[in-house]
Structures are given as C-alpha cells and as structure tokens.
Amino acid sequence: MIAFVLRRLGQSVLVMLAVALIAFSMFRFIGDPVNSMLPENATTEDRQALREQLGLDLSVPGQFARFVTGAVQGEFGISYRNKRPVDEMIAERLPATLELVLAAAVFALLLGVPMGIYTALHPKGVISNLLNVISLIGISVPTFVTGILLILVFSVWLNWLPSFGRGDTVQLGWWSTGFLTVSGLKSLILPAVMLGLFQVTLIMRLVRAEMMEVLRSDFVRFARARGLTNRAVNFSHALGNTLMPVVTIVGLQLGSMIAFAIITETVFQWPGMGLLFIQAVSFGDIPVMSAYLVLVALVFVAINMIVDLLYFAIDPRLSVRA
Amino acid sequence: MSLESVSQSRAAAFLQSDIYYRFRSSKITIAAFLITLIIVMAAILAPWIAPHNPFDVSTLSLWDSELPPAWTEDGDPRFLLGTDNQGRDVLSAILYGSRISLAVGFVSVALAMVIGIVVGLVSGYFGGAVDAFFMRIADVMLSFPTILVALLVSGIARGVLPREMHDSAALVVLVFAITITTWVQYARTVRSSTMVERSREYVYAAQLVGRRPFAILFQHILPNVMGPVLVIATINLAMAILIEATLSFLGVGMPPTNPSLGTLIRVGNEYLFSGVWWVVIFPSLTLVVLVLAVNLLGDWLRDALNPKLR
C-alpha cells in the first residue's frame, strides 16, 4: 500500500516537474523578459539590475531551480501587463472561478442524475427519446453559443437576470464570495447553467448506461424475486451501485470544468482566473500564462491522484497487482 | 480495358458496395451529407455567389447599417439576413466566414493526420525508445482538455511573434495550434493497429523479399490501418472547426478584418444588447448546423466501417 502511494506520488511530482519545465521555458526563452518589463528608454544599468533581480545571470539549470523554488512557494514573478505580482492577481480571481465551477457542478448533478435515472427506468418512453435527442443537440452546440442564447433570452428579451460580472460580493478574509448577496446569486445563475449544461448531458448518459447495466444484474433480479417494491429496488439497490462511477467521473470533470470556465468567463465577463488567462494569452503575458498553466496542471494531477488512490482503497482487486 | 471503362466499372462497384447501401438507407446521413456539401460549396464559391463583398469598403454604406432580416417589417430585400453595424451584409459575411472556418478545419485535419500517421507507424513498427518518447508526450497532452492545449499553443505563438504580425499570422497560428493539439489521436490509433499488423504474414513476406522498412510501412501497412483514421478525421473536422470558432470567439483567433464564423459571433455578441440579434444568431446557427452535420457523418462512417456492427 505504502509503496503504491509513494510510486503514485512520485509520478505526480514528475508530471508537475515536466509542466514546470514547459512553463519555465516559456518564461525564459520566449521574448526577453527584461525588454517586456522595462520601459523602452531604460538605461543599461537598469537592465543589468533587473537581470540580476530576476536571476537571469544564473546558469539555465540554476534558473530552473530558482523557478521551481519560487513556484512551490506560489511566486511566479511580475505580470508584464499589469506590473503586479502574479500570485496576488491569481489569488484575487481564484474564488470567482471556484464558486462558478462548484455551482455548475451542483447544477449538473441535480439535473443530470434524475434525467439519467428516468431514461434508464423508461428507456422506450416518449420523454426519454426527447431527452436523448436534446442531449445529442446539446453536445453539438458550442458552449459559447449556448451562453449567447442564454443572454439573449434571459437578459435581453426577458430582462430577468444580469448578463455580466459577479454582482455584489462579500469579503470573508481574502476570499470574496458572491453566495451571500441576492445580486451575487442572480449573476451566478446564467454562467453556472452554461458551464454545467454540457456536463448535464454527460452525467445523464453515464447514469443511464450504468443504471441499465446494474438493473440487469443478478442481485437486482433477486431483490425483485424477494418481492421488494420497484421503488426499493430501483432506488436503494440499483441507484447506490450506479453512483460510484458517476462521482468519480464528476470528480475528474471538475478539472476540465475549470478549463472550460475560460469560455464561460469570457462570455459573461466573469472576473475569474479564466478571464485573466485569456487576457494574458492575447497580450502574450508569459508570467500569468505560466502561473495559470502550473496551477491548472496541479489541480488535474491532484484530482487524478486522489481518484487513483480512492480506487485503490475501494477496490481490493487492485492491491494484488500492486 | 480503356480508362473510361475502368472508371465506369469503379463507379458501378461503388454503387453496389456495402458502404453505398448503408449510406442510402440512412435518411439522416443523406441529409447531413447534403447539408455539409451545400455549406462547403457555398463557402468555396463565396466570391461568386455572395450578394455583396463585405470587405470592399467602397460598397458599404452606413445608411444600410443594422438592418434586420429581409422578412421582418424594416427589412431590406437586398440584405436577406440583415446587416451589421457597418452596413455589411450578414449573409455574405457568413459565406466568407465559413470559407475561413472550413479552410482552417481541412488544413489542420490534413496536417494532423499526416503527422499522426507517420508518428503512429514509426512508433508502432519500431517500438523502443522512439515509441516511449512519443507516447509519453501523448499521455501528457491527452490528460488536458484540447481547448486548453490549443489556447496555450496559440498564446506561446503570440508571445514569440511581434505584435504587429498577430493579425496577418492568425491563420497560420490557428492551424498550428489545432494541428499540435489533435495529431495525438491519430498517432495513438495508427500505433495500435500497426502493432497488430506488424506480425501479419504479408509483412513478414515483404521483409523477406528485402523491402526497406519505410516501404513496408507506407506501401503495405498504411493501407490496412487507414479505416479508423478516416473516422477520426471526420469527427476531428467537426472538432477542429469548433476549436477554431472557440479560439476566434475568445479573441485569440482570426481578427475582425478577416473574420471566421467564430469572429463573426464574437463581434455580433457585442451588439446583443442593442437588440441586434441577427448579427450573432445567423453565424451561430451556421456553425451549429455545420458541426452537427459533420458529426453525424462521422458517426455514420464509424458504424459503417466497424466490422463488429455488420
């Protein structure tokens, strides 16, 4: 067990080092950081001073070691565009993105799981066919088009919900939350729906496939033979066994939802990390890009590792192989 | 046999083939094929069939700006789908925009396919360190969402290029970003089929005859691994068009002076609040219909080429 955990941990550290190397190479070899950070009329002494301050006079491996040490402590240097420390900028934006992703995930689960259960229990019903067609269209419509349609209907035509920003936020220490104000919650609805809608179709298809599989299994047939009601069989026997893989997939999807939040945040001008990243991409602001890359990679690696370890803990067959 | 009768008998063979039968018996596929064909033809012929040239400033008139579609009350019959804020005909802009979207899609799919096939064949046939190297790259790339990788690649490209080149190089950067992001799937598929084909008798025979490895790879193995590649290429065409549209929508793709469908949607999005819905809705609709049709074609091709389903 300990050997497995250690090996898995070692793999994750390797992947993170590889990502750090990419981020570092972007930082070091694309453009001259000194030119990007100083005004055009800077003197040679200024340049030399900044060069030393950034550690650019060190050898390349030395610079990489310095970059990794900084990154571990959350330091990614100064943004070329805003002239502010990148870690501060990201810390400001982090709560907005995480709240958006959380709301979208809850929305996707609340809608996707019941839809999946329904289509599994009534596979030939009219509503099931309708849901299947809708989910096929849902997968083909690009998320930003969904967002625009939501804005057009609910903000422009009906004027029910705001179409940009987070509304009023409340500061809890360094964390700014939109959950506690009415305008914050209203602003959250459309972005969360847009980000969650794609996941709804995914979860629905997954729950349906898993549930239909479980409903065919022996223990469900025995439960029926024992004379249990449909309700008891469907919901306490079948559903419980369905949800395990669903929770795993949703966990794995959290990472890609953070990535897809880039699009949602652009459509709704949501002041999160994704909007920061997209601005950095269009300005070629390398420090912000490399910090975002490392952070998102960390989230992905961490989620993957936790899922692997959980599987190891749950599934006894895996321990034989390890 | 003359050349003409060869092509005739080929056509006859095609009409009697399994694939054609399956195609004919699926109404949705025929519809998807026709829609794709119409959009592709319209895009290719855009300079000849578009009612206006949206990029010729001399023909634009601000009097014609923000006109609604022709069938509405204030519509103008000259502009079937209305005009944008500069008086450009939306229909013409869509025709020219589809041209760019499809060009980026086709070129990046072709490039990714070539790179993926070569890497896959070499990795699968030779194995060893080359294989390990490419497959570790593939592992890392596949563990991140494609859109994130594409954004990153285009961001790096923008960092490398001087600012004034961003607009003129946009097309190349887009094709590059999408190719880099999508070759992995072809490589994976070709690699696994090549590893199976490698130990077939015809390959041994070719080796015994003394054919060189690359001749064996490209003349003997390649034709036998192309089926799945075609399926991935079709589905990836839809994906490439979507990635291009998304990047352009996010503002890191085609510039407004030379818009693709994604750029048109981005620009139209800015006028949503003045009630000018047609500038954003019609390009979006074109994109959705195109992607849906290509996806349906891909699904059909996957089923038609899958021996397990026969």
Structure summary:
Helix content of chain A is 77%, strand content 2%. With 322 residues, chain A is mainly alpha-helical. Chain B has one domain: MetI-like (MetI-like fold), CATH 1.10.3720.10.
Polypeptide structure, described:
The complex is a heterodimer of chains A (322) and B (310). With 322 residues, chain A is mostly helical. Helices cover 77% and strands 2% of the residues of chain A. In chain A, strands 1-2 form a two-stranded antiparallel sheet. In chain A, α5 packs across α8, α7 crosses α8 and α10 runs parallel beside α11. The radius of gyration of chain A is 24 Å and the shape is globular. Chain A starts with a helix and ends with a helix. The model of chain A has no long low-confidence stretch (mean pLDDT 78). Chain B has 310 residues and is mostly helical. Chain B has a single domain, classed as Orthogonal Bundle (MetI-like fold), CATH 1.10.3720. Helices cover 71% and strands 0% of the residues of chain B. The longest helix of chain B has 37 residues. The two termini of chain B are 34 Å apart. Classes of the chains: A mainly alpha (322), B mainly alpha (310). Chains A and B meet through α1, α7, α10, α11 and α12 of A and α7, α10 and α12 of B.
List the helices and strands and how they pair.
The complex is a heterodimer of chains A (322) and B (310).
Chain A (H helix, E strand, L loop, with lengths): L1 H28 L3 H5 L6 H10 L6 H13 L13 H36 L4 H15 L2 H15 L12 E3 L2 E3 L4 H34 L2 H8 L4 H39 L4 H11 L2 H29 L1 H6 L1
Antiparallel strand pairs in A: 1-2
Chain B lengths: L2 H14 L1 H7 L2 H18 L1 H4 L40 H37 L1 H15 L3 H15 L9 H28 L3 H9 L3 H37 L11 H9 L8 H28 L5
Helix pairs in contact in B: 3-5, 3-12, 5-6, 5-8, 5-10, 5-11, 5-12, 6-8, 7-8, 8-10, 9-10, 10-11, 10-12, 11-12
